[in-house]
Each structure stands twice: as C-alpha cells, then as structure tokens.
Amino acid sequence: MLVRDPARLGDRGSQVEVVKGDLAKPETLDAAFAGVDRAFVVCASGDLSELAGNAAGAAKRADVGHIVLLSSATASDTRDYAIARWHRAAEAEIKASGLAWTMLRPGAFASNSLQWVGSIKAQGAVYQPTGDGKRAPIDQRDIAAVAVKALTSPGHEGKSYVLTGPEALSAAEQVAKISAAIGRPLRFVDVPESAAREGMEKAGLPEVFIQAVLEIHALVKAGQDELITSTVEQLLGRKARTYDEWLARYGRAFL
C-alpha cells in the first residue's frame, strides 16, 4: 500500500506492506513500485492526468504486468464538463503506457453521504442544489471487490467497467433513509446554486473544484445522471449492495 505518510495510516496488519511515496512526486515512486506485479491506482485529488502519468511511468519502469485504475463513470460520458475531462485524461495516461489496463468507472459513492455528517449533526438537515435528481450510489466495498476481481483473475485487460448501485435515489430519499437508520427526523433542503457555491467558498475550496461540483449538481438536478448498471452483479455473481446495506454498516457516523 502506497501512502504519503505511513505514520498516519495506523496498523493494517501483517498482510499489508506499507511503502512511502507520493504520486505527485515521481522521484518517490520507483522504489515503491519495485517488485509489484499488479497495481491498483487511485488518483484522489490534484491533476489526475499528471498523477496517473507518474504512476504509469513508474509501473512501466518496474515492469508491472497490469494496472487497474479507479476512474469515474463520467469518463464514459461524451458531454464536455470538467470532471469527465479530468478522468478521461487520466485514463489516457494509463493507456499510453502500453501496459495492460482495466478501468473501473464508478458512479456516485454511497460514502459521499458522509459529507453531510456535519450539517446533520448540527442542524438535522442536508443542503444541496440537486432537487429531485437521482443517482445510483455504489457501496465502496463493491468497488473494492471488483478491483480485487480485476487484479487477481484473467480476462479483464483492456476493459472499462461502469459500476453503480442497484437503485437510483434522490438526495431527499437518501436523507430519509439516513433518518430511518438513526431514528432522528432529518430534512433535505434544495438550495440555490449560489448558496452551494457560497458554502464551498467559505470552506476554502478552490474555484476549479467548486465549478466542477456545480456542473455535476446541475446534471443531477436535470435528471441526467440516473444510470444504473448490472456490472457489479455480472462480475461478482451477486447483487450490488443497496444504500440501506451501506447505512447498516456506516450509518452510525451520522449519530
């Protein structure tokens, strides 16, 4: 497991080897990739194409056999908006390496709900400019299971998998499920885009990120992000976990 600061990771047990490195600092990567046969690459923030390119370069020098990239369902979208462009560019870097690759393209993570913890605890409310628009949130454990499948079994090279949960839910419906799970009344407030922008500005988020998030919110509100796939079930031989199942495991975070 490659991490920037191993001291912050905590104990991961004897089966996890932790190495220090940073995808934004290519000079740290050759030692980290040495002896690696297959790699799961996650570019979480910053210039995704640069990070993916750095990872691909180190992987190629280390003769890694297969890269599985955590991308995004937006990479499958032909429309032109920031998050889609960022993920398509990251995928292009991996493909250009000449190494065997698999792209995992999840939609909205169920765990994105955790960004609501603060306002739920403080005000019993969630504020978001997405109206009745729906998405099909996927449990991160299902993404991990698909990643393991792609890394440890043959036949996934050169394939891109769009991954979603099994049901499309609006933010209001998610909030209602959280309310039922924690036994506390909650409300969803469909705020104007300007209010969402103001909140992100107060949080110190960069303008490029704010604009990208608002683009996604607009797509959701317009009902243009309701895709549901059966890919998880096809790959794992079981149904994707529901949002209720995610809450059963992680809902205590909202208490």
Characteristic key phrases:
255 residues; alpha/beta; Rossmann fold; 4-stranded parallel β-sheet; two-stranded parallel sheet; 10 strands; 41% helix; globular
Describe this structure in words.
The protein is 41% helix and 15% strand. The protein is built from 10 helices and 10 strands. It has helices spanning 29-33, 48-61, 82-96, 117-123, 140-152, 171-182, 193-202, 207-221, 231-236, 243-250, and strands spanning 2-3, 19-20, 38-42, 66-70, 100-106, 125-128, 134-135, 159-163, 169-170, 187-190. Strands 3-4-5-8 form a 4-stranded parallel beta sheet, sandwiched between helices. Strands 1-2 form a two-stranded parallel ribbon. The protein is globular, with a radius of gyration of 19 Å.
Give a quick precis of the structure.
With 255 residues, the protein is α/β, with parallel strands linked by helices.
Question: What's the helix and strand layout?
Answer:
Layout: E1 2-3, E2 19-20, H1 29-33, E3 38-42, H2 48-61, E4 66-70, H3 82-96, E5 100-106, H4 117-123, E6 125-128, E7 134-135, H5 140-152, E8 159-163, E9 169-170, H6 171-182, E10 187-190, H7 193-202, H8 207-221, H9 231-236, H10 243-250
Parallel strand pairs: 1-2, 3-4, 4-5, 5-8, 6-10
Antiparallel strand pairs: 7-9
